[in-house]
Amino acid sequence: MTPLASVPAPPATPAPSLGSGIRVRVARVHRTFPGGVEALDGVELDITPGSFVALVGPSGCGKSTLLRIIAGLDEATSGGVELVPAVGQAEAWRAPIAYVFQDAHLLPWRSVLDNAALPLELSGVSRSEREAAARQVLAQVGLGDFTARYPAELSGGMRMRVSLARALVTRPRLLLMDEPFAAVDELTRGRLDDQLRALWHELGMTVLFVTHSLSEAAWLAERVVVFSRRPARVVRDRALELPRERTAALRLEPAFAREVQVLSEVLERGGG
Amino acid sequence: MVRGLLLRSFPPLVALCALLALWEVLVRAFGVRAFLLPPPSAVFATGVRDAGQLASSAWVTAEAALIGFGLSAVAGVLGAVVLASSRLLERALYPYTIFLQTVPIVAVAPLLVLWFGPGQRAVAASAFIVSVFPVIANTLSGLRSVEPALRDLFRLYGARRLATLLKLELPGALPHIFTGLRIASGLAVIGAIVGEFVAGFSEGTAGLGILVLAAYRQLRTDLMFAAVLCASGLGIVLFGVVSLAGARLLRRWHPSAS
């Protein structure tokens, strides 16, 4: 009989999109390649679970190396990377990381469906289960009607979306993207950025996005980390003062232009 | 498509007819003796008259060539997989596979007779030795040319060694493997004929290599020509079948197939 009874009860379990990313702690990571080339010089980062962070810096500065170290594909010479799962996530720990490369890197002998299902196939998920998951994620990236096609029959932007679907099929808690849309045209890149933001909203994973386009970084991310020239150090770690909803119109607003301007100055000073 | 095929095969067919006509006319005009150079009409007549013998000889040769080629395909791909499994192994063994390519098969053939006895096994072994190297070399370069990013992807998802081989390396190497197999198909027929020259004497039907030798001893140059044509026809057919199989398999994904 209390007035509170009319208020809808809070959901029993939190929406899956909230806080299901993992925290990434990068502690004083150095990386020197055999032969003496120094790529990373004491990089220090703490990435909040479920955040979208862009990493920018001069090309060849070592951003990709950092991403590879976080993914476990390369090892730090000193320092370390710690991936901290959110509370109660230990069970979903399998394949928590996905990596999207500069090019789509699909297997040309496999259909779109089989490409998207590959990560699940490699971890031994049954055919019916992995195909259902792949269909779902392909629909999410807008390729629901192209599952039977082969990569050679798709445009560059579509191939990139298959690559994104392949990354998302394991429901990763951390998505690492290494200049993923650099090879597609401007218009397609804008669409892919849109789609990525929407997927991030929906799925709530942590995203680390390497790019050298400052406007792409500002439009996509909540936080931008600027690196110096090689060997890379963090020269600026900036939370953007932009609304959470990003629309195409945002690109024309003064607040957006200001953010890009600030980043550009930092990059010029730090990288120069 | 059929129209395209006709249009494309028209020029070489015209060239062939012109060449044969010229040959026929010159042989007749200068009265060249048939044991030196028989006119095409005589070769054709022999081909028709001895069609049965040519066909059964061609089959004997084809069988040995196919066995040799099949062994090359299997051993070549497996050998390359083993070599590709470690840099050390490749460095240690690959130089010796080149021996297979440079070995003068005519000189080794008598050895094959000693080991296998005259007959099909020695002939097939000769076809194998001549044709295995291109399969090894091409498969190896295919296995090595897998994109590093794809290797990373497989590593990231914890793919086992066998899964990486079966789902990434071998399918990725398929275009290279077929290049090797196409080269090997023609070489296997050559290897079989050479093998027959030395090791083809046995009971039963003689292969094309033996037929060529026999015709030579009897100065039946027309039969020699017919047998040689059969042998090259055999090589072309095998090459065509392998190319077709490759094109079908790679149709949807590799630019070399379209």
Give structural notes.
The complex is a heterodimer of chains A (272) and B (258). Chain A has helices at residues 63-71, 112-122, 127-140, 156-168, 186-203, 214-220, 254-271; strands at 23-32, 38-47, 52-56, 78-84, 97-100, 174-178, 206-210, 223-227, 234-239. Chain A has 272 residues and is an alpha/beta fold. Chain A has a domain at 106-171. Chain A has a 6-stranded mixed beta sheet with strand order 5-6-7-3-8-9, with helices on both faces. Chain A has a 3-stranded antiparallel beta sheet with strand order 2-1-4, with helices on one face. The relative contact order of chain A is 0.18. Residues 1-19 of chain A have low confidence and may be disordered. Chain B is an all-alpha fold and 258 residues long. Chain B folds into 2 domains: 1-32; 33-257, MetI-like (MetI-like fold). Chain B contains 10 helices and no strands. In chain B, helix 5 (105-116) crosses helix 6. The mean pLDDT of chain B is 90. The A-B interface holds A 68, 71-73, 95, 97-99, 101, 103, 105, 107-109, 118-119, 121-123, 150-153, 170 and B 147, 149-150, 152-159, 163, 167-168, 171-172, 174, 250, 252-255.
Name its key features.
heterodimer; A: 272 residues; six-stranded mixed sheet; 9 strands; disordered N terminus; B: 258 residues; mainly alpha; MetI-like fold; 2 domains; 10 helices; 0% strand; globular
Element layout with pairings:
The complex is a heterodimer of chains A (272) and B (258).
Chain A: E1 23-32, E2 38-47, E3 52-56, H1 63-71, E4 78-84, E5 97-100, H2 112-122, H3 127-140, H4 156-168, E6 174-178, H5 186-203, E7 206-210, H6 214-220, E8 223-227, E9 234-239, H7 254-271
Parallel strand pairs in A: 3-7, 3-8, 5-6, 6-7
Antiparallel strand pairs in A: 1-2, 1-4, 8-9
Chain B: H1 2-29, H2 40-49, H3 51-84, H4 87-102, H5 105-116, H6 120-144, H7 148-156, H8 161-199, H9 208-217, H10 221-250
Helix pairs in contact in B: 2-10, 3-6, 3-8, 3-10, 4-6, 5-6, 5-8, 6-8, 8-9, 8-10, 9-10
